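Crash report, auto-generated. Payload:
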Amino acid sequence: MPFHRHTLANDLQIIGETSPSARSAALGFFVRTGSRDETPEECGVTHFLEHMVFKGTPHRTALDVNRDFDKIGADYNAFTSEENTVFHAAVLPEYLPQAVDILADILRPSLRTEDFDMEKKVIIEEIGMYEDQPMWSAYDHAKRIYFAEHKLGNSILGTPASITALTRDQMAAYFTRRYVAPNITVVAAGRFDWPRFVELVESKCGNWEKGRVGREGVRETPGSQRFEVMIKEKVMQEHVFLIASGPSADSPLRHAADLLGMAVGDDSGSRLYWALVDPGLADSAECSFHEYEGAGAFYTSFSCEPDQAEEDLAVVRDVLHGVQRDGISEEELNQARSKVLSRVVRGSERPKGRMMAIGMSWTYQHEYRPVDEDWRAYEAVTLPAIRQVLERYPIDRVTTLALGPLKALTRPSDNGSR
Amino acid sequence: MPFHRHTLANDLQIIGETSPSARSAALGFFVRTGSRDETPEECGVTHFLEHMVFKGTPHRTALDVNRDFDKIGADYNAFTSEENTVFHAAVLPEYLPQAVDILADILRPSLRTEDFDMEKKVIIEEIGMYEDQPMWSAYDHAKRIYFAEHKLGNSILGTPASITALTRDQMAAYFTRRYVAPNITVVAAGRFDWPRFVELVESKCGNWEKGRVGREGVRETPGSQRFEVMIKEKVMQEHVFLIASGPSADSPLRHAADLLGMAVGDDSGSRLYWALVDPGLADSAECSFHEYEGAGAFYTSFSCEPDQAEEDLAVVRDVLHGVQRDGISEEELNQARSKVLSRVVRGSERPKGRMMAIGMSWTYQHEYRPVDEDWRAYEAVTLPAIRQVLERYPIDRVTTLALGPLKALTRPSDNGSR
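Recovered output after restart:
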């Protein structure tokens, strides 16, 4: 599948992977900005801005945006993470020009004050909805406590207070600073004509401001290694997160870290599954590796009846100590590899999956990775590489957060191997 | 993409669509049996049996089943509907033989009494979980009231009472009656070798009992046209379903019915969306067409604040009356078509999507439908065809069920155009 790239005069980047066997096309606008790029006063602005992008432009009302996407039968959406805001649409090949037109237009939003004030209420309601989900809430607090003053600990949604305080002009200033051409990559995958696509994007985005962008605070962190219990009496189950550090998104160790996380805590057939879920000691127990720019982390979590939490925490710590001491077996590595390869390959069969994959690897590694290369990188992971990950990033050196009805939980005397 | 078919001596059917550009393979065992094939004493047995299939065979414990799927990195699952029980797995091409081996093995389950008794508790818990979801609960009750004595009204999950009363021997008798070779189609799609696949299936399933199977009570129904309010004080919102009849799964009108349902009530940009969701009168409002063997139905539903329900019901009835009287516009038809074609095409890009599509059209129409043929069927739908659907199946001749805190809701004096 041929890869193409082109940079406009304003430094906006365009990449694409054309696939003759595809029957649709997927399009994404990747803005390299997220909650880690916010000042404390701007807390939550990236996600709020993602919503405002759909509220209209000088050429389209919010209704028009909705109607125009609907007319072409687009499957469209957007998301905001710690470091990326991505707007995307999947369409039949003949509608790609319209999809480019709509997305390019809405990425220069009007940010009208009336819409801003109205959407503020929606955002505050959304924060409330997430707070009602104990697992998500535990994850968010654990991340904040783990990262401490590191900017990756910034809340993506913000708080009702930070959103209430935010002004339309603060958002406009953030937009002007972060949504500049060199900070945006336009990505297409599937069935489309590359030269025509470049022309289209150039005609719609060629006049976007150039500006200068960067990202502060890119560094590793061992995490705070704190141990906290948050009492939430209305929550039924106890939800516990243990976070340890891991390699970053440009580290050659990241594929090994991914397989290690899966062997330890995939939702079926992993160490944690057999230790907690299969015997019925916990409702769920998982571990997974997340990579960021400059940092990475292993998120281990479980949820259970409150009176079971003390025992379960001891079991999880035993599992993590055991892995840290003895590593994993060749069989566990191979099983994790089968699962990951199966997901990589199945994910690559749709233009949407490829669009996301090439957009992300361009954002993080500034390189194009065909599926086969990802495949080979996972194939090449050996037990010594797993050992290297563990030596550099002890998986049992954890920051712990429990959220639920429990008043207290015993802090273990040791905390990992360092 | 070449289609293949083969029937074994015991009348088990094998079909496959090989695709050279695919990177994985998807496999499904389609058992043509569901809740409509149960006697009143067997209520819930099909779904319960689907669970028991994963509990082990003479050659595998439940643990082995889980471990063997995990070893090959399979994405596997199963579901039970009113008329089908489908077991499926997506894998890398080299693991297809193992996937066939596992699925063929578990489709001859041991049905051990200890496992049966243990799983009974899981099923009863699952029924409780679904009852806690008011939208699902309203759907289930509405379907029961609409279909009345028609067997499509049978509950898929059963009730705690019916599951408690069920014996292991009743399940074994149901299995012997329904899981016979002529009632099963084995389906593969993606990258695989057809002759080798047939050999494999034959070696694993060639000795399965032949038996005789049928299905009783295959007929259309105009529905009971009743109007019921179920009081659930603990539910926050009011959830309302209106069901009207539609064409069946082998009717030439089904593509028109599908587009009509989408124009009336897709979750964005439809009549109901603009009438209720966009102005904030309801949290959700949808209409969709469901097809079954011998019957079909349009399910219209909305949820809202209880004190808004009376007005919203009037709005929904106005929308349905308006559609019945004047049909939809060319623009609405085209927009619905764009959405459906986009979904059809994107769904076809993965072997799993194709496996489901060809398995279902084989089950219902006893024919192979390449993607292009489905495409052409939707392309060919005209406004006169929409009119034909409405004349034969008035969309405003409804059975109504409201579930929520409301004590009463006014029954409209008229009920549709007939």
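Post-recovery validation: The longest helix of chain A spans residues 113-131.
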